[in-house]
TrEMBL record:
Keywords: Cell membrane, Membrane, Transmembrane, Transmembrane helix. The keyword Membrane applies. The chain crosses the membrane at residues 27-50, 70-87, 99-115, 180-199. Pfam families: COX3 (PF00510). Belongs to the cytochrome c oxidase subunit 3 family. The lineage of its organism: Bacteria, Bacillati, Cyanobacteriota, Cyanophyceae, Nostocales. Its main location: membrane. It comes from the Bacteria. This is Heme-copper oxidase subunit III.
Amino acid sequence: MDSYITTEELHHLDGEHTHDEEGNKMFGFIVFLISESVIFLSFFAGYIVYKITTPNWLPAGVSGLEIKDPAINTIILVSSSFVIYLAERALQRHDLLKFRLFLAATMAMGSYFLLGQAIEWHGLAFGFTSGTFGGMFYLLTGFHGLHVFTGILLQLIILIRSFLPGNYDNGHFGVNATSLFWHFVDVIWIVLFILIYIWQ
């Protein structure tokens, strides 16, 4: 019986190993996102409990939050999930030009969201120390904003890596993980928007 392995079989085994490695990486990344979800869920629970039990929930002189601009920012951020999905599909078709364009558009939409949040913060009549609501508002929106900023940095990294010849020949883990992280960030913001802006 022949004991040697042909080149084709070796390539097949190497492909299986690469696939398993990517699967393990993605599993680890999903576990990381679950841990992040637990942190956000604890913040959500704290916000709900404080809102229900705290008299004079809003800071003195504040009757509520303006919703129009945050709603526009929300639409832009949530829409960016679809755009980064298009970037993923373009990469699967080996269309690097469209991949880069959709990725750049996603980064621009995320940056617009952060700019809108910064403008909102600047115009608010209360600060981080303005009662329980002030502290919770800045903690929740700031922590989420940090995740948006992280997502933009990750997108910038994979955009730069797309210019390295053959970088994505052996898998798209970085792109898939970044896209999943971005979807996670968008879902978290939807919950935050409902809790903070809709439920006033």
